Amino acid sequence: MTPPYSYRDDPDVPAFDDSAPVAVLDASCAICSWGARMIHRLDKTGRARICPMQTPLGAALMAHYGLEAEDPESWLFLVDGVAYADSDAIMKAGRCFGGWGRIAGGLRVLPRPVRDWFYRALARNRYRLFGRADLCALPDPDFQARLLR
């Protein structure tokens, strides 16, 4: 496990406001765009940030945690400097935001290797199954304010 806030010591990761949760998602994936909109709806505090992995910050964070930004099979969810990926990211986001997001905790009934296998199979086929979308083109100004670019 990587120590909390380890990205702060990585010269390749630009400085950013990490005082609130940050979701690093594929901005061209329809299901990721849906996930970003869900974070926007569920986060009643309005503090969580969404960072497209196609940005310099997003790509650097992905690389820092050994993930591929060009063809990702995962996404990152950073909370208090700790990174979560795959199904753990979904469950942690659900716990952070509460409400309907807590349903994601039901994934715990599956052993981690099984749930991560399903997650990665979905991620590998995300464009074919769900198509593409442009996360950054969403017109909602409150949503746009959450984007880290």
N-to-C series of helices and strands: EHEHEEHHHH
Helix content: 25-40%
Largest sheet geometry = 4 strands, mixed
Overall number of domains:
1
Q: Over all CA atoms, what is the radius of gyration?
A: 14 Å
- Outline the low-pLDDT stretches: none
Count of alpha and pi helical runs: 6
Q: What order do the strands of the largest sheet run in, or round the barrel if closed?
A: 2-1-3-4
List keywords for this structure.
149 residues; alpha+beta; four-stranded mixed beta sheet; 6 helices; 39% helix
Please provide a written account of the structure.
By secondary structure, the chain is an alpha+beta fold. It has one domain (20-143). The model has no long low-confidence stretch (mean pLDDT 87). A hairpin with a 2-residue loop joins strand 3 (76-79) and strand 4 (82-85). The protein has helices at residues 30-42, 56-64, 86-97, 112-124, 126-130, 141-146; strands at 22-25, 49-52, 76-79, 82-85. A four-stranded mixed beta sheet has the order 2-1-3-4, with helices on both faces. The two termini are 27 Å apart. Helix content is 39%, strand content 11%.
In short:
With 149 residues, the chain is of the alpha+beta class.
What order do the helices and strands come in, and which of them pair?
Blueprint: E1 22-25, H1 30-42, E2 49-52, H2 56-64, E3 76-79, E4 82-85, H3 86-97, H4 112-124, H5 126-130, H6 141-146
Parallel strand pairs: 1-2
Antiparallel strand pairs: 1-3, 3-4
